[in-house]
Here is the input.
Amino acid sequence: MTVAPAPEPARQAAATDSVASVTGLKVHFESKAGRVHAVDGVDFEIRDGETLGLVGETGCGKTVTARSFLRLVPMPPGVHAGGAVYFRPHQPCAVCRGAGCAECNDTGRVPVACPSCHGTGCPACDHSGVETIDLTRIPEKQLREIRGDRIAMIFQDPAKALNPALTVRNQIAEVFQHHRTHEVLVRAGLGASPNPLLRRHVIQKSRLWERALLTLPPLRGQRNHIDRAIDEMVSAALAETQIPNPVKVMERYPHELSGGMKQRVMIAQALACNPDLLIADEPTTALDVTVQARIIELVKELQSRHKSAVLYISHDLSLVRRVCDRVAVMYAGRIVEIGATEEIFANPLHPYTRGLLAAIPSRSHQRGQLVAIKGTVPELIDPPPSCRFVQRCSYGVEVCGELDPELEAPLDRHAVACFIHNPPDVATELPSFSKVTS
Amino acid sequence: MAVGTAVRRPAAPLTEGLGTRVRRFGEIAREVLRNPTTLIGLILIVGMIAMAILAPILIEPNTPNPYQMPRDWGALNEPPGTAGHPLGTTQQGGDVLYGVIWGARTSLRLSLIVVSITVIIGLIVGSLAGFLGGKIDELLMRLVDVFLSIPELIFALAIAAVLGPSFGNIILALAAVFWVKYARIIRGQVIHIKQNEYVDAARVIGDSSLNIYMKDVLPNSITPVVVQATLDMGNVVLIGATLSFIGLAEAGLAEWGVLVSQGQAGISAGRWWASTFPGLMVFLWALAFNLVGDGLRDILDPRTESKR
Here is the structure.
């Protein structure tokens, strides 16, 4: 992992070595009962090459947050109520060509310079000189170019995330056809003379009569070269995920593969274009435990090779502890605590995080005893301006029900949204871990 | 990415996944052969379609219009087995065998035209409604409801009656009735399929909406349409025969319903053949397509897969 930035001006550090940052993101859903504040002011950043874990219980908004990166939240009923998701696309480092060197901080890639100021700093890039894209505002067409190329996603259930009507080859091929059109042509030996007919064959926009033309020589031979080039790229992508016999697997339909194999195919598809950011939405929840372990190892290994940043969404704390460099704990549409993994697990600051960690069964628990946080997640329909956790919190006092704690950092590398650590500016009774109130 | 170093080259270009497609087709074919009722239906269909296609070879076509029954005024109401008329003649001297064979051609034409028109219209309307949703969905589906609220036979009858008796109008009437069903089926399927995660996954790799529809939504929604279309190949002929039976086709058309209606007057007088043979054909046609349609439904339904 990259070492946490030295205490320089925070803003500058955030801009240069973070691949994406979420600021004040609010995603609401209109329902008959009122406005559901599913994501209500979320701030965090993902640094180059790190794995950030996003944990929380069902319905706390972690999936909606992740989906906002690629604008996959259906609107309506979803409403983008504020905030932004900034993304900084990267390109391979010119010095080491992706191998990792001192110039690129061993990540193999460097940020793309801002197109309006060419790196000198302007208001468009927040004076960082780095191209910064607000994923919530760019036009659909530009977003499509980023999806699958610079940002990729792995879904929870590989059985549902693969199209049952297409072979594995055709599903992975699509990524190359959309995002690596030129590379496919070069590989097929046709880079110098991109015949528009062949080009359209690659991006699968051939008309019916064009398809007929392509079956006749000499185009037929060139078309076969293209198809073979794609085959090679697909089988190489599959081979990277350690699928045995990728050439054979390529021709299979998803229903002919096991769950673990399907997830490997998904991973191959996601990493095919070497993305800057990989979003993994509970990638192992639908798999059984033995396969889980192998998939996690695979993701870790591929991440260290590709040096992509990973946003890892999970409700499994022990898993997150193994995989992630930093952890963000979400509760009821907010991030309540964020920090380095060791910090969070060794010294949890928020009462909710404490409750979560206490709920992990361990050898010291007696058989038959499971610890739980009392109460249930509050309704997120038009919530009052108070701490979201106050009804379930053992340390809550009056001020917790009246004011909304902000996410602030009492310690280096560790931020929390709780009045125990960040007292409000009003003179009142303060909550404390030493005082159990309910 | 280390591409192409340790990777064996595939033997042949795997364009369109031809090999896998053939394999899938082979699986379906094997299922059909293993299911006796489907097989019987399939044999009947092949036989009757062969009869329809080979009609000009099997029996001398009538001139100038082969779809009109030839009249043998010297042989009225002849029973089966008469020389030159193996299945007998009608009271107007029409050869029943000619009617049976060329009637198959008429039926094939009718069902193919009606089913293809209705499937296309239904696909377009249903897809627009299901994929786009919102106001378009609401508008199109209320239109469909209007069509659905009228009983299909009476609706077809009304159209044919207004436009006048002719075979073309029967096609039109049936098409106007049948497309509604497909629109509903495909809309439901599209709404169901587009919620699948692989549609999101396609969006994630940067696919456009049209591409997603053509690649991810349509191919996975089409199965019930295939089954319904097969069933309707039979139903269309059944209702078509009903309409021509009550006199909505041209008189003297070589069509099973017309023949049945010509022969019905003679049944009480013991001249059973003119109605029975074409009636039997209608029965077999509808039966065959229903058997195959039901078989396809079982074979193509992924939920029945575990039973095999």
